[in-house]
Design brief:
With 333 residues, the chain is α/β, with parallel strands linked by helices. It contains eight helices and 17 strands.
């Protein structure tokens, strides 16, 4: 088939791009398909966000990530991944959503939102998790003043903002909003902030809380959201908190629909079955990056997920080479 790829990679984040680079180096006929922009998840990060990892540890393809500081900000990362994709002249199709992966004999048919069909001998799912927020499952969560993403502070100046969550995103947003004139009240389900929050930010936040500049309530369970209040329980008591805006920064989950529909076995924690080569129980269908870890998204990030790429491509290249050799021998007979 003239349009049969050796590999289609779903997702153009750092781990998907790393897979594309390895496929390029292995001379595979590949295509990266992304439902948004290059590094879409990073593009949706807060405007002034700075990475936890050093620049060297989020570089890919052996291309140095040269910046003045040790840790990159969002803008620097977006520029870096764009330039890396251009350096390797990666084959990428953007703003194309894969709606279904259909195993078909020894290959796959990928159905796009435009009704196209893409054919490939193998598939890597490197879709990350940032597009699927962990929902509160409460009344009013879909109201227009409620968001699961925080971009920048200026629309919240002098407004009452309720932040739901105690992880890194909530901590960063609370400090940023406070420094830009918003009136912040945090609702945290646990008795303290999550240990995954950046360790240098939590003491700063706790000082602001102690000073009364930021309000925080712990051991809270949100019950419902209305256009003007957030209703929550704390120690059996019902409280109603006025809010102009609500940021439900409660984390994100991987979207396992593509994998399940393709026949991949996924456990109760959304972890897909896979072997040491990151190949799932469906032959030729691989997972990379945070797609491998289910709800435990804190276990895989750019720093270690980028190393999935050479393992996958080495395994796939060996298989394709073996299949080609077998095919040549059969033709000779």
């Amino acid at each position: 088939m003239a349009d049969l790829y050796d590999l289609i990679i779903i997702g153009a984040g750092p781990c998907g791009l790393a897979c594309g680079i390895e496929a390029h180096k292995a001379s595979l006929r590949y295509l990266i398909v992304e439902q948004g922009s290059i590094a879409e998840s990073i593009r949706r990060y807060p405007v002034h966000m700075r990475f936890f990892s050093t620049a060297d540890n989020i570089s890919i393809g052996g291309i140095p990530f040269a910046i003045a500081d040790a840790k990159a900000n969002r803008s620097e990362a977006l520029q870096y991944y764009r330039k890396v994709s251009e350096y390797f002249q990666l084959h990428i199709r953007l703003y194309t959503r894969i709606e279904r992966i259909e195993p078909q004999g020894n290959s796959f048919v990928l159905h796009t939102h435009r009704g196209e069909q893409l054919h490939s001998r193998a598939v890597v799912v490197a879709t990350g998790y940032f597009t699927c927020p962990r929902l509160l499952q409460v009344e009013g969560e879909d109201l227009p003043h409620v968001s699961h993403y925080y971009k920048e502070p200026f629309e919240y100046v002098h407004q009452r903002v309720v932040i739901i969550g105690g992880g890194n995103s909530a901590v960063e947003a609370a400090l940023d909003l406070y420094r830009h004139g918003a009136k912040v009240h945090m609702l945290v389900r646990g008795q303290d902030f999550k240990p995954t929050a950046k360790y240098w930010l939590v003491p700063d936040l706790k000082r602001r809380i102690a000073e009364g500049h930021i309000q925080a309530s712990f051991g809270c369970q949100v019950q419902r959201i209305t256009p003007t209040i957030v209703e929550y329980t704390q120690q059996g008591q019902v409280h109603r908190l006025p809010a102009d805006f609500v940021l439900a920064l409660t984390g994100y989950l991987p979207d396992d629909n593509l994998l399940r529909q393709a026949g991949v076995k996924v456990d109760n924690e959304l972890v897909p079955q896979h072997n040491e080569h990151f190949e799932t129980n469906v032959k030729g269908l691989y997972v990379a990056g945070t797609a491998i870890c289910g709800i435990h998204t804190e276990k895989v990030y750019i720093e270690n997920g980028r190393f999935h790429a050479p393992v996958i491509i080495k395994h796939l290249s060996r298989r394709l080479q073996n299949e080609s050799t077998i095919g040549t021998q059969r033709s000779a007979h």
